[in-house]
Amino acid sequence: MKHNSSDNIQDLQYFGEFGGVNPSISDSSTYTFISAKTMFDTFEGNTEGCYLYSRHSSPSNLYLGEALAALEGTETANVYASGMGAITSVILQLCDTGDELVSSRTIYGGTYAFMKNFLKKFNIGTSFVDITNIKLVEKAITSKTKMIYCEAVSNPLLEVADIKALSKLAKKHNIPLVVDNTFSPLSIAAGKLGADIVIHSLTKFINGTSDCVAGVVCGTADFCLRLKNVNSGAGMLLGSTLDSLRAASILKNLRTLHIRMKKHSENALYLAQNFEKDGLKVVYPGLKSHAGHTTFKTQMCSEYGYGGLLTIDVGSLEKANKFMELMQEKNLGYLAVSLGFYKTLFSAPGTSTSSEIPLEEQKEMGLSDGLIRFSIGLDNDIHRTYEMMKNCMEKLGILHKKTMSI
């Protein structure tokens, strides 16, 4: 019988404290103990199932963590107050002073800035490589390398990582493979493909309503417990704690992720195919012209499609800005960073979410001034959306109207 990640989530049922169909929300920052010894044991990390302090764990956060572990097929998961809270905790847990990590060259700008600039404080070095070239990745690994880091589908260029090949390489060198799967939940099950640790910014598709910031680390029970260790856990000591009310809200939204991802992907594929036919420079993993199309196809769960992100290069930043402003004026979406919302979101990443990357490096990796990143929404009539977007492009001279020949 076919059984995928959405089934794993569906099969999780929690009764609320009073029999509610949603689990009760734990609205406490601290928890009482029947005996002093149990408190001592909890501080020592010897007692499972006891709550100490909400920065360590809470029932609401554990419910959400269990659901996200089911999503990625890992033993357990820890939730955080942001995606960056999750990313930084993992890196600082795995790397000590003098260590190194190998990372994809195209990653979220905040992750890039943390690796390139902030880690210098700890004398931790990062080698940025083309993650699609396994030989280059292996060449960058040294005796000091403590992890390989990548995004399953990269931000913003939508490069596709071969997770199985990277996992094989990581195991060969006895280092963990850490995958940020924010762009492709359900479409790619990174944990099942061999990633040791899977990270998501829950802010995006998983929550889906652009009303909170949160993150998760999915991994082994041992690693997640180490992150929460009161003496040496980066997750515990850095203090990126997700509020219980937000955890409960995200858990409810997670229940519809499978429906939303299908529609995001269906709409994005329709637009990508049609704009490519119109002669635009479109990048979308679902197009055969995409360099990573075959890689994505071989590791995807096909019913959820190729994701909701696509890029279009309109030639210049001036054209990109005018086009985005006009689309917003026509109620086609919002000129805003982030992704996974019910409305389409669009931005020029070179001057926004990837602005932390120096211009010369942006050019080297193919991030041009005119590139627009689209997070395609849940529009019911996507053909109408296409016609309206096309009309905006024609008005600005990005596309030229085709005249009928008699």
TrEMBL record:
Record-stated family: Belongs to the trans-sulfuration enzymes family.
Membrane-spanning parts: none
Top-level class of the enzyme under EC nomenclature: lyase
Protein name: Methionine-gamma-lyase
Regions annotated as coiled coil: none
EC number: 4.4.1.11
Domain of life according to the entry: Bacteria
SUPFAM superfamilies: PLP-dependent transferases
Signal peptide, first to last residue: none
Entry-annotated residues carrying N6-(pyridoxal phosphate)lysine: K204
Record-level GO BP terms: transsulfuration
Gene3D superfamilies assigned: Aspartate Aminotransferase, domain 1, Type I PLP-dependent aspartate aminotransferase-like (Major domain)
InterPro entries attached to this UniProt entry: Cys/Met-Metab_PyrdxlP-dep_enz, PyrdxlP-dep_Trfase, PyrdxlP-dep_Trfase_major, PyrdxlP-dep_Trfase_small
GO terms under cellular component: cytoplasm
Cofactor needs: pyridoxal 5'-phosphate
